[in-house]
Amino acid sequence: MSTTQPTHSPAPAADTPEELEARIRRKLTRQRFMHLIGADLTVITPGRVEAELIMGEQHQQQRGFAHGGLIATLADLVAGFAGVTLIPDNYGLVTSDLKISYLHPGIGQKLKAIGWVLKAGRRLQFCEAEVWCDDLLIAKASATMAVIEPA
Questions:
Q1: Tens-digit pLDDT profile for residues 78-87
Q2: DSSP strand E in 40-151: where?
């Protein structure tokens, strides 16, 4: 990480919607855990990302609900990639803090997670996420993401 302080927030070149989606999908090839759980990004726009996952038995805890770790993972995934849409391609983003509130048990067929950036700063991004099971909001999260400068 560079020791020099940039004088402005890093901002990607003005990607077309197609370029932005291609850039994010290229980064997703290294997101192995997302692929392991079977999640897929369905919406990619500047500062906002959505993902979906079809529920299977492997996603459930002992009572048949969506596992809390799975829900937190989806919230982290969409919040983080919403942030990635707002930084240059050669920068990185990692989760610094994640707070999640579970509102209802996840009982259903499909999980949908929506993440967005509240404030994109030079060093930190403040993001939120919601996780839905079918048509019910089951979790709400807030996350702080740390911007990683290129080496």
A1: 999 999 999 9
A2: 40-45, 48-54, 92-102, 110-120, 124-133, 136-148
